[in-house]
Amino acid sequence: MALALGVDTGGTYTDAVLIRDERDVIASAKSLTTRADLAIGVGNAISAVLAQANVAAADVTLASLSTTLATNALVEGQGGRVALVYIGFKARDLEKHGLADALKGDPALVIDGGHSHAGNQAMPLDIAALEEFLGSNTGISGFAVASQFATRNPAHELEAARIITERTGAPVTCSHQLSAKLNGPKRAVTAVLNARLIGMIDRLIGRAQDTLCDLGVTAPMMVVRGDGALMSAEQARERPIETILSGPAASIVGASWLTNVENALVSDIGGTTTDVALIKDGKPAIDPAGARVGGFRTMVEAVAMRTSGLGGDSHVHVVTEGLAGGVFLGPRRVLPVSLIAAEAGDVVHDVLDAQLRSATPGEHDARFARIVPGIPSDGIGAREAVLLERLGDQVLPLDQVLRTRMEHSALSRLVDRGIVQVSGVTPSDASHVLGRLDAWDSAAAHKAMELFARKRVGSGDRLSPTPEALAQMIVDQLTKQTALTLLETAFDEEAEDFGIPPEQLARHVLMQKGLSGHRGLLALDAALNVDVVGLGASAPSYYPAVGTELRCNMILPEHAGVANAVGAVVGRVTFRRSGTVTSPSEGMYRVHLEAGPQDFGDSESALALLETVLRQEAEHEAKAAGAEDIQILVDHDIRTARIEARDVFVEGMLTVEASGRPRVALG
């Protein structure tokens, strides 16, 4: 009998499921994600699901983890302090290609070096400048190295990585190890994001493995990649960027397993994000351009998914423009007031009561801050250090934390690093006020909603007459923004090009009038012409209204709240490796390998060597992840040009896929 344990660590909850023989979900459980020590939440969820199923930990034959932490970190701009070593490029490229945004003020070194398109050295690597840079920058959690045409010849990236490792001992991400494609700046962005995530994902996996061991689970641990396939925990630690969209991808796999739908949009609402993807012919599509998360387009293979900063714990903002006003949600996640009150007790209630007694609303009413223990604070500035000292180990109202306008940006930087958590009004609080949710402190949620309702809009009137009316306004806004996200995805995936960006089409007045069934001189009707599978713990609460808004069939499967944990254990181990053969001159065929270019006199020999190497690499990775019954697929993309009535070889790209079941897989 195979007994598989799936765990998903999200921004708010950690979910666990047990599946027997790939047929039945025999138990599921939830526990709050404990960011200060992720092992606590993981352990609580696993212990609960084992107790519910009445099985021994030693009986588990496969354990697998999916996580939204990488996705959430990039959406919210969080992660460790990193440094980029940018070889052979121009300094202006940092601004031109979005690298400055990815670095978020972290240091970068632009030095001579790099190679040509053919793999020949363009300039020698400036080792002296690199060593000087390493000596003057401390507190770096990870380095990213990107060299010009490194996918043609990675020698300079490898040499720079060797020097960095020897001098600092910090983890190094080389861009050529993440993608075999050209486009150096995009590879550099991917490497920077990978370096930023290493510490966070390493802590998660390490603590998860420790927890499994402490509980008596001896089965090997797998991790879900962004394309829904499985990898070993050790592989995920080396390439955490590949866990971008891990949780959402697992939810798509889980949705397919739970519903057997052939064609549908899947919408997964969590605490931080809403993730929407299309299942077509029973399979989720892979984004050929690479995963796009948090405004960054990466070179990581992942499910084609639209991720927006919209969830149950999204920050609620007051819209003051116009006379009517209103609210808008996200993209940042904040800690719900009802949750921080449940954890901090009387401290939060005393502050809320004092703010309610004030005759005038305050800018920071119903907002709190606290330090997350155990998160490194190396490299922070003087203003950030003052705020940390002020907070200490307390939960403080935000108006006591921020004393000058200049401290606002310092607090934002601490939140970006994950060092500080901020609490505020969220849809989860609104659900507590409306009686839809009773998980935390409903009384605190009601007080916070009353404070928020006193805020003034453009007309000078209160935002809302009652806390209950404001709570409904927030839930209605969540419905509206979710519907727009689904429409954007549908337009993006539509076969016909309407000539207008999906974001504009979703909001177009004719589209919105059609959804409301306008009747005048014109009769306008519009609807989403595909089923929607709603996932997430709060999906049954929020998504029926979304289905009504879009006039579509909404499917809410059993176990929708733990679909990502289900997907974590029903996937396959799959690895793809790609490589290129070019023709620098007539009669010469160059294979671009990790060890350096190799030349041949005919294309057949060059392609044969490349296929052999890629097969070995892909199969080795699959075996290292614990796969068995491995199948190999090879895709040839050969480009030729017609010259003087004959076809001339220009370039060949090979992709080898090795896929198999986990060695202790189900069934």
UniProtKB/TrEMBL annotation:
GO MF entries: 5-oxoprolinase (ATP-hydrolyzing) activity
The Hydantoinase/oxoprolinase N-terminal domain, residue ranges: 5-166
SUPFAM superfamilies: Actin-like ATPase domain (SSF53067)
A GO-annotated cellular component: cytosol
InterPro entries tied to this protein: ATPase_NBD, Hydant_A_N, Hydantoinase_A, Oxoprolinase-like
Domain Hydantoinase A/oxoprolinase: 187-322
Pfam family, one: Hydantoinase_A
Domain of life: Bacteria
A GO biological process held by the record: glutathione metabolic process
PANTHER family found in the cross-reference section: 5-OXOPROLINASE, 5-OXOPROLINASE RELATED
Protein known as: Hydantoinase/oxoprolinase family protein
Organism: Phaeobacter gallaeciensis
